[in-house]
User: Which sequence fits this backbone?
DNA sequence: CCAATTTAAGACCATTCGGTCTATATATCT
DNA sequence: AGATATATAGACCGAATGGTCTTAAATTGG
């Protein structure tokens, strides 16, 4: 039985910057500008890293981008897992989920857009690593919606003729479309009324 | 009264290439690659123009892009004006409109994406000319949907409680979201079933 | 102290970027 | 013929690109 961790403790100066914080700062840059429009100096400024440190820690721009995208996706999944938690009323979960999109779509948040949607449009179909991530995110979102809608149906809260599977696919398209239309920064009231009207078609 | 056209007839060699055809070829490149990822050589290859001719005819890359975007938008509006023609049954128009999105979203068409959505995500909020075009397109689309839905309502074809205004906004988000999800190239059958399920919530 | 390692700063690299310009051929007018 | 205009091909430009490397300071463990 090993009592010692097998990882070697390096002897030199330890890393002094927070890798995850750097990924988050990089994510914010890619989020605001997109992949191609983000230049190295933008990332260096945001992460406050030197070129050498950034390349040593992350390899290259593309690898750093994938780390940032993974972080963005993980945050989105975590949010959904709170909203659609099993102990919560599924209809309440749906409302919270939509409320999040209203929030993210209003004013400056909306104008900033969505890293995932922007990446899908900019890189999907030309970058296999991106394809995998985008595809699995949409599947994960759809699965959580199917689950919540199924529970709502079991509780008799779904309107007549609503199928969880097709309703989930409708909702995925709808919320991703909100992120596109959100680039024109619609008023929060309008977004709220729109999601309410959609929910009204599904919920009893 | 003038019997002559006021435009000067130039005396030199006339233009030998088709400007609109060049715009269309450029549009296809921007459509496939996005604005930033499209380099001058890509445009020269596609238009079969020399650098000199391209710059003389269109000014610069950005101006050519706007011409291409205008062309793309005009095509989309023309399509809607056919689908939602006043002499047509509005419900049939809605079905044709959705059928177009199913078509554009399937397989290679879907993977290619949508120039308008890609442009919204890539440039909106950072390019005032783009902002104007994206905003006015969404308004034009919404207005046509409101009109068709209002006529459907007057004909008693709308489900109970469906408001043309909010339904139109829902549909705008939904179809633009289809273009995002379409980057993962969903099966045509799935897209068709999804739009059918949505229409089923609105139409009697 | 010494070896090991990370740090920041920035020089440096080849390549590509969007854009201009020159040279030359071609086509149409008076 | 001569003037005018457009075409192509490609040289050329400065700036910016992503990426590598060197130097020297800093910080740890042995």
Assistant:
């Amino acid at each position: 039985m090993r009592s010692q961790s097998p990882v070697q403790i390096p002897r030199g100066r330890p890393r002094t910057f927070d890798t995850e914080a750097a990924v988050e700062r990089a994510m914010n840059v890619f989020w605001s500008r997109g992949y191609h429009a983000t230049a190295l100096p933008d990332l260096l400024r945001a992460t406050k890293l030197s070129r050498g440190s950034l390349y040593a820690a992350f390899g290259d721009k593309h690898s750093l981008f994938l780390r940032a995208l993974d972080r963005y996706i993980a945050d989105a999944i975590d949010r959904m897992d709170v909203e659609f938690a099993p102990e919560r009323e599924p209809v309440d979960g749906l409302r919270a989920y939509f409320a999040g999109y209203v929030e993210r779509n209003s004013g400056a948040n909306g104008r900033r857009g969505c890293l995932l949607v922007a990446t899908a449009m900019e890189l999907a179909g030309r970058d296999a690593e991106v394809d995998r991530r985008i595809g699995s995110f949409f599947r994960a979102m759809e699965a959580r919606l199917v689950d919540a809608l199924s529970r709502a149906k079991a509780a008799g809260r779904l309107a007549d003729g609503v199928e969880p599977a097709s309703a989930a696919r409708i909702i995925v398209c709808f919320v991703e479309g909100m992120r596109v239309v959100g680039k024109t920064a619609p008023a929060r009231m309008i977004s709220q009324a729109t999601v309410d009207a959609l929910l009204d078609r599904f919920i009893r």
Summary: Residues 9-14, 16, 39-41, 51-52, 55, 60-61 of chain B lie near DNA strand C (CB under 10 Å from a C1'). The domain at 19-202 of chain B is CATH 1.10.357.10 (Tetracycline Repressor; domain 2).
